[in-house]
Amino acid sequence: MKRTENKRKSLFIVDDNLTNLNIARDILSKKYNVITIPSALKMFEMLNKTIPDIILLDIEMPEMNGYDAIKLLKDDDRYKSIPVIFITVRGDSASELAGLALGAVDYISKPFAPQLLAKRIEIHATLESQKEQLKEYNDNLTEMVSEKVKEVMGLQDTIISTIAELMECRELTTNGHIFRTQKYLKIFLEVLGKNEMYKDEVGRWRIDEIVQSCRLHDLGKIAIRDSVLKKTSKLTHEEFEEIKSHAAYGVEMIDKIERNSGNDAFLEHARIFAGTHHEKWDGTGYPEGLKGEEIPLQGRLMAIADVYDALISERPYKKAFPHGEAVRIIEEGSGTYFDPNLVDVFLMLQDDFKNASIERVDAPQFTHFTTTPPPPPPPPPPPIKKGAEKKKKNI
Ligand SMILES: [Fe+2]
Ligand SMILES: [Fe+2]
Q1: Is CB count within 10 Å lower at the N or C end of the chain?
Q2: Distance between Cα 66 and ligand 2 center (Å)
Q3: Ligand nearest to the CA of 276
Q4: Could you tell me which residues come within 8 angstroms of residue 335 by beta carbon, excluding any fewer than 6 positions away?
Q5: pLDDT, tens digit, for every residue of 71-103?
């Protein structure tokens, strides 16, 4: 039940003495909506119908005294925020202290001095109005902040999607890789959040944030030359080294964004994904050659998701492996390439990975950006006519 929304504040005056009730009502009813109640039990009945802004409560009453009544009020979530003012003939400071200790906001002695009573109630009524205004202001602020957060998240999501699509378009050969690896990561995290070994770390992450940030794991590929990134034949050693540099470039780019926009958990995850998804459990990966649990969990997870997707996808230099073969290769890499505990989790989840891998992937929308496929290999030379070779040699 909501508190009374009238501008005039409403008061309960609870006292078993009818004369006191009438005096208090006469003093206060000019400014407030006053309800006089002859006992604490009746007050609780009345509270089921309406919630006042302030309760004036006598201490000495039959059936239930004021101290017991305030304890019940303060124990009940519906009523505990209603300010209670004790009205009593007990003028000693011990009684006053006892009342305030139980949660009363004030203590007014009887018999009432009319002007003093009116003034004291006015102070508490003003305080109540200010509390309500502050609450309203806070509610509005919270609403505005959550709206803004939603807006920023939406904008962030759009920008990340756009970058991811641009990256896919540029590479041409990995259609859907970013979308799928994101789904694999989500599958992992849903299970690891309940796993004894990982739940503490994963529990500290916001799943939507980390899942979104993993889309930037190959961001550094933007810095790789087209001639290397789109090369369909075997890469030279130098070219492979250039491809490998995408991990360090990714970190550099995200660091730069962070320097301009401030620290942010999303960027922190993105930097870790970009910089560690090619590290290997045995320390032979790149760019840092991190080993075992030196590799952050994000990187160890993305290593499996990334390789699984590369294995089941067709690339210019290889055919797509069937799911079972990809699983076998990952199992084989347990403890060398990959975190063995996470490989066990992957094996348990392999059907989910398979289902996620075959879901339809929308083609990137920026097809105009790179509609030109890599140049076809030159046509084979015409067959040399008999005798021509000899003739050539003679030249
Ligand atoms: Fe990569
Ligand atoms: Fe990747």
Answers
A1: C
A2: 70
A3: 1
A4: 281, 282, 343
A5: 999 999 999 999 999 998 877 788 888 888 999
Look up tokens 């009573």; give the residue.
117
Would you say residue 231 has pLDDT above 50? yes
Residue 336: which CATH number?
1.10.3210.10
Q: How far is the CA of 309 from the centre of ligand 1 (A)?
A: 11
Question: Cα of 85 to ligand 2 centre, how many Å?
Answer: 67
Average pLDDT rounded to a whole number, residues 116-137:
91
Give the chain's radius of gyration (CA, Å): 37
Q: Look at residue 67 and tell me if it is in a domain.
A: yes
Q: Can you name the residues that pair with 84 across neighbouring β-strands?
A: 55
Q: Which of 232, 221, 122 is nearest to 173 (CA)?
A: 232
Range of the domain at 161: 141-369
Q: How far is the CA of 349 from the centre of ligand 1 (A)?
A: 23
Q: Does the pLDDT at position 391 exceed 60?
A: no
Q: Which ligand is nearest to the CA of 177?
A: 2
Q: In sequence order, what are the residues at sequence separation of 6 or more whose Cβ sits closer than 8 angstroms to the Cβ of residue 30?
A: none
How many angstroms is it from 277 CA to the middle of ligand 1? 6
Q: Is 5 helix (H, G, I), strand (E, B) or coil?
A: coil
CA dihedral 101, 105, 108, 112 (to 10 degrees): -160
CATH number at residue 32: 3.40.50.2300
C-beta of residue 220 within 8 angstroms of C-beta of residue 170: no
C-alpha separations of 329 from 108, 190, 324 in Å: 82, 24, 9
pTM for the full predicted model: 0.62
Helix/strand/coil for 322: coil
- Nearest ligand for residue 305 CA: 2
